[in-house]
């Protein structure tokens, strides 16, 4: 294990991969003489979100198609609103809903899939930024000589364990790797205490602190320290400039997060709701859009400045992406996208032995019938009128013949293919 790299399932390997990217970015910076971890975090964040751009576009496409499908889906829900306790009716509702999704060539889990893919990436990204020396070799090497020296000094373990406890750093046993973890979280007063405790290492301590400060400080702030700690230190020192700098991180985080949620909600507001659960969900989303910026500010005030930089830059990049993607999606011919999706779905249905025309007709017919209940009622009335003059024996015979007709060459009972064939046979029978 190299330093305290994450070994969590999925997140660990993803964090290692992201660490290679960050290490590469920092190496390029070193070649041009800019060894700034803050700048590295900014560039790293931009690169990661650019790599996630295809998923963002796909998710927005799904949202746009969802808005097109919503009227039909809402009609189906309205149709079965009063039949929630009827299992057969619920199965029928699910079948009709699935038919609409097939008609548009959309996977109902499409949006969830994007989130599932992104979640481990984002968690791994936090891990990399949280403990940069574990993933960036140049930063690790800056601490390594001092860590090696402390391993051979009496009393170093107890001293470093005490500082680790104050800085909320795990320190179960003293190794070169765990020492580097603690040293990376050092505050100015910790360096002074270390120098006082081990004067024989003064030269090494001073040079290490100088190298670390050169890499860690960004716009006057130590990225390994939290704005809350910086704020307390600034209050004690009476430094107004440092107070402003410490508060600037959470404030900017809240503002950029608010901008990002505003752009996302603007996109989602184009999608109609059907009342009930849909309206409740919309209200919940609006509440979250208010709470997220506040939570972002609180987190960024207590977490290291490096995490705050990532949060701010991430929100800015997402906002720019949202503007670009929205503009791209608005220019797209959604009807053409739907047509292409329908063609793909037709090929799948044909391969499965299902007539795609009957499936599409079934989906369209269901929603049309829902939208025109009076027409449906009149059709039923005419059907009843046509059979009222028949005797009971004649009615039974007609039912038998009709059942035999619809069971002819039928697929597995209850399957989608079976229902599609029944629609086809109905049309053939009534048009003959």
Portion in helices: over 70%
**Strand segment tally:** 2
The H-and-E topology, N to C, reads as HHHHHHHHHHEEHHHHHHHHH
Distance between the termini: 76 Å
Largest sheet: 2 strands, antiparallel
Instruction: Kindly estimate the percentage of residues that lie in beta strands according to DSSP.
Output: under 5%
| CA-based gyration radius | 32 Å
Described by the principal axes of the CA atoms, the overall outline is: elongated
Contiguous helical run count: 19
Mean pLDDT: 78
Could you list the spans in which at least 5 consecutive residues all have pLDDT below 50? 270-278, 367-383
Structural class computed from helices and strand pairing = mainly alpha
**Strand order, largest beta sheet:** 1-2
Question: What does it look like?
Answer:
The chain is mostly helical. Among the domains are: 230-331, no CATH class; 336-371 and 397-431, no CATH class. It is built from 19 helices and two strands. It has a two-stranded antiparallel sheet with strand order 1-2. Strand 1 and strand 2 (221-222) form a beta hairpin. The longest helix is centred in the middle third of the chain and has 29 residues, at 240-268.
């Amino acid at each position: 294990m190299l330093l305290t790299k994450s070994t969590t399932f999925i997140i660990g390997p993803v964090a290692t991969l992201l660490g290679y990217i960050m290490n590469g970015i920092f190496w390029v910076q070193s070649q041009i003489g800019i060894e700034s971890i803050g700048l590295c975090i900014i560039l790293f964040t931009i690169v990661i979100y650019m790599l996630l751009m295809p998923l963002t576009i796909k998710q927005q496409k799904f949202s746009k198609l969802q808005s097109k499908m919503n009227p039909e889906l809402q009609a189906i829900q309205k149709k079965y609103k009063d039949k929630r306790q009827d299992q057969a009716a619920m199965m029928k509702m699910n079948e009709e809903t699935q038919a609409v999704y097939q008609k548009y060539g959309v996977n109902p889990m499409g949006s969830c899939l994007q989130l599932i893919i992104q979640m481990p990436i984002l968690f791994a990204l936090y891990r990399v930024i949280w403990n940069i020396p574990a993933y960036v070799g140049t930063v690790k090497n800056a601490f390594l000589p001092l860590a090696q020296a402390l391993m051979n000094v009496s009393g170093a373990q107890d001293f470093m364990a005490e500082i680790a406890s104050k800085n909320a750093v795990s320190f179960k046993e003293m190794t070169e790797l765990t020492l580097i973890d603690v040293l990376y979280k050092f505050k100015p007063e910790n360096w002074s205490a270390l120098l006082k405790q081990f004067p024989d290492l003064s030269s090494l301590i001073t040079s290490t602190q100088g190298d670390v400060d050169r890499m860690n400080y960004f716009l006057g702030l130590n990225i390994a320290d939290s704005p809350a700690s910086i704020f307390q230190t600034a209050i004690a020192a009476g430094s107004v400039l440092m107070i402003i700098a410490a508060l600037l991180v959470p404030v900017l985080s809240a503002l950029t997060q608010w901008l990002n949620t505003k752009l996302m909600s603007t996109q989602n507001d184009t999608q109609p709701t059907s009342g009930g659960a849909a309206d409740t969900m919309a209200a919940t989303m609006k509440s979250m859009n208010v709470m997220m910026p506040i939570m972002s500010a609180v987190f960024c005030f207590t977490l290291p400045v490096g995490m705050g930089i990532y949060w701010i830059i991430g929100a800015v990049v997402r906002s720019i992406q949202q503007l670009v993607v929205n503009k791209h999606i608005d220019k797209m011919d959604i009807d053409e996208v739907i047509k292409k999706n329908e063609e793909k779905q037709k090929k799948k249905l044909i391969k499965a032995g299902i007539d795609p025309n009957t499936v599409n007709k079934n989906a369209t017919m269901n929603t049309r019938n829902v939208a025109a209940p009076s027409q449906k009622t009149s059709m039923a009335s005419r059907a009843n009128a046509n059979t009222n003059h028949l005797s009971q024996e004649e009615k039974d015979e007609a039912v038998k013949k009709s059942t035999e007709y619809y069971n002819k060459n039928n697929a597995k009972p209850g399957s989608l293919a079976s229902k599609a064939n029944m629609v086809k046979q109905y049309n053939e029978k009534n048009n003959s």
